[in-house]
Amino acid sequence: MDGVLAAFAPVSLAQLALRFGLAVPFWRSGMSKWDGFLQLNDTAILLFASEFQLHLPGGPYPFPAPAVVAFAAGSAEVLLPVLLVLGLATRLASLGLLAMTIVIQLTVPDGWPIHVTWAAMALGLIAWGAGTLSIDRWLASPARRAA
What we know:
By secondary structure, this protein is mostly helical. The chain is built from eight helices and four strands. The chain has helices at residues 2-8, 11-31, 42-51, 66-86, 90-107, 112-128, 135-139, 142-146; strands at 34-36, 39-40, 53-54, 61-62. Strands 1-2 form a two-stranded antiparallel ribbon. Strands 3-4 form a two-stranded antiparallel sheet. A hairpin with a 2-residue loop joins β1 (34-36) and β2. α2 runs antiparallel to α4 (66-86), α3 packs across α4 (66-86) and α4 (66-86) crosses α5. It is globular, with a radius of gyration of 18 Å. 24% of the residues are buried.
């Protein structure tokens, strides 16, 4: 029975779905922060300067250097999803998005149901990689590609 079910959901398809599923929400968020190439919009900076707070013990605390943090977050939210969709440096990109998810959870504690989903997808990709439908696999040594 497991073999029949596995035929409907091969591991490589599941890994591809995880890559796209994790990439989409971060890509959308990242694209909303930019007005043009390397031109961060005022709203993104304003959110990090006045709205977003880190909910840590004794806090909440404002983000340090909000313009720098907004630029870094916006850049990562565009670059890391592209890497995921391509299946390039997948484990590293997933680790970056997992770290971002943790910071987002500290910023928006009530969003934990969706944050757990993002963390689970990132952890799956970190653990099992991009799969056969990826540049990572194409770049791997011939012996690893056969495995």
